[in-house]
Write a structure and sequence with these properties.
- The protein is α+β, with helices and mostly antiparallel strands.
- The protein has two domains: 1-68, no CATH class; 71-222, tt1808, chain A, CATH 3.90.1570.10.
- Helices cover 22% and strands 24% of the residues.
- It has helices at residues 39-43, 71-90, 145-162, 214-222, and strands spanning 55-59, 62-66, 99-105, 114-120, 136-140, 166-171, 176-184, 189-197, 201-202, 212-213.
- The strands form three sheets. Strands 3-4-5-6-7-8 form a six-stranded mixed sheet, sandwiched between helices.
- A hairpin with a 4-residue loop joins strand 6 (166-171) and strand 7 (176-184).
- Helix 2 (71-90) runs antiparallel to helix 4.
- The protein is globular, with a radius of gyration of 22 Å.
């Protein structure tokens, strides 16, 4: 099993693909995908050692490198961030340390997944993003079937087990938002969920007074749909021949 202890050593990928990094190109980048790596090793790598512009995660002991999300995910995520920040700023006098940020790893999970957006509330201090589990984690579903499975199944289990109170999945393809919650008692825990449809708004006791109109985010995503090419105009003068 290869480690990241020495960047000068040939890094051995988890698969048989002929991918290797040498001393003259020793930063972690797209060519590093597939490396076997423990989460602790990943955590120890300085940010300067990663090629910028990519998302890096450790999933089941393997480094996963993906390109930046598309506009249809980034734009509604930015808009959601604006709505949340506007809300948090309006409540800053009572809760000055609540925060929301995009692209953060979720502490407390066996992997190093990077969520689309995290929200910390009720800590009474600035969050330690490497240790404090967000109260709310948000993912925007990507187009791939495998990506959707990860969002709805794998991430849900990991996030809720880590202590996330609400997990929002915003699905522009199904036109819904699914909110998973865990109710814990001394003897058991139960996972419940709410379905928010396109014409509805979502409210949560974690953010009193905040209302999220799902249609607004879906509209932002829709604006990035590929436009159909216009049919060519018929030539002037009538028919051929």
């Amino acid at each position: 099993m290869a480690t990241v202890e020495s960047k000068k050593k040939l890094r051995e990928p988890a698969t048989a693909r002929p991918i290797a990094l040498y001393e003259d190109d020793d930063r972690i980048g797209p060519g590093s995908a597939g490396l076997r790596m423990k989460p602790e090793e990943f955590d120890a790598i300085p940010a300067s050692e990663f090629v910028r512009g990519y998302r890096y995660e450790i999933i089941n002991g393997v480094l996963v490198v993906t390109p930046p999300v598309g506009n249809a995910e980034a734009d509604p995520n930015d808009d959601l961030g604006h709505l949340l920040r506007t809300y948090l700023e309006s409540h800053e006098a009572a809760k000055p340390f609540d925060r929301t940020m995009p692209e953060r790893h979720v502490p407390g999970t066996p992997n190093r997944r990077r969520c689309d957006r995290a929200v910390w509330v009720g800590l009474g201090r600035l969050p330690d993003t490497e240790r404090d589990v967000p109260a709310i984690v948000i993912e925007f579903v990507s187009s791939g079937r495998r990506d959707a499975f990860r969002d709805y199944e794998e991430k849900r289990e990991e996030y809720l087990a880590a202590g996330v109170k609400e997990y929002w999945i915003i699905d522009r393809f199904r036109r819904v938002m699914t909110v998973y919650k865990t109710k814990k008692t001394r003897k058991s825990s139960t996972t419940t969920y709410d379905i928010v449809t396109e014409g509805q708004s979502y409210e949560t006791p974690l953010l009193p007074g905040f209302s999220l109109p799902l249609a607004r985010l879906l509209e932002k995503a829709d604006q990035w749909r590929p436009r159909k090419q216009a049919e060519p105009n018929a030539p002037a003068g009538g028919t051929d021949g």
